[in-house]
Design a protein that fits this description.
This protein is of the alpha/beta class. It contains 8 helices and 9 strands. The two termini are about 15 Å apart. Keywords: ATP-binding, Biotin biosynthesis, Cytoplasm, Ligase, Magnesium, Metal-binding, Nucleotide-binding.
């Protein structure tokens, strides 16, 4: 994982090849690298599903991890939190997601902090509601997109397909970060090189 290439980004949007690719881990690394440059930083995860109950409150474990780095409140990081570990358009049974409110919250963060990192939910082709896709949110935020590739069996296909779809959907694609989830995966380097050679 090479974070140095992303230090100069003014802010960014983190997406991934799929669920559990390590978006939050990478997001925390970038936020910490920004902090080391002396910038004030914020994390923003507009939607989180698969949340847990803690002290009679539904919380996102991803938001908790992000808050440990930035010191923000969970409500500032993650306004839409759903218990069901499902796509947002399924988890949000009442269809409460408000794109305009999401954008307004992001602009408020930009005024308050030097850098804002926005973390998506699931992979790239995720519906946020019956009418909205993740790409609609990213286009509205107009941020450089960094894709996290879960390095393991099947990652070449997943990575190349995701990159291609991002480029079809927007002109905001910036780059990708390899995240080796399975430390015992012997072909990690060869898979990363295969993605590099074809991307």
């Amino acid at each position: 994982m090479l974070i140095d290439n992303y230090l100069k980004l003014p802010s960014c949007f983190i997406t991934a090849t799929d669920t559990d690719a390590g978006k939050t881990h990478v997001s925390c690394e970038i936020l910490q690298a920004w902090q080391q440059q002396g910038w004030s930083v914020a994390a923003y995860k507009p939607i989180a599903s698969g949340a847990i109950w803690r002290d009679d409150k539904l919380v996102s474990e991803d938001a908790l991890a992000l808050a440990q780095v930035t010191g923000q409140s969970l409500s500032e990081i993650n306004p839409y939190t759903f218990e069901a570990p499902a796509s947002p358009h399924i988890a949000d049974k009442q269809q409460t997601f408000d794109l305009a409110a999401c954008i307004q919250h992001f602009r408020h963060l930009l005024q308050k902090y030097d850098r804002v990192l926005v973390e998506g939910v699931g992979g790239w082709c995720v519906p946020l509601s019956d009418d909205l896709m993740l790409k609609d949110l990213v286009k509205a935020l107009n941020l450089p997109i960094v894709m996290v590739a879960r390095i393991g069996l099947g990652c070449i296909n997943h990575s190349l397909l995701t990159m291609e779809q991002i480029k079809r959907d927007t002109d905001l694609y910036h780059g990708w970060i390899a995240n080796v989830i399975d430390k015992g995966f012997e072909d990690a380097d060869a898979n990363i090189q295969a993605i590099l050679d074809r991307s």
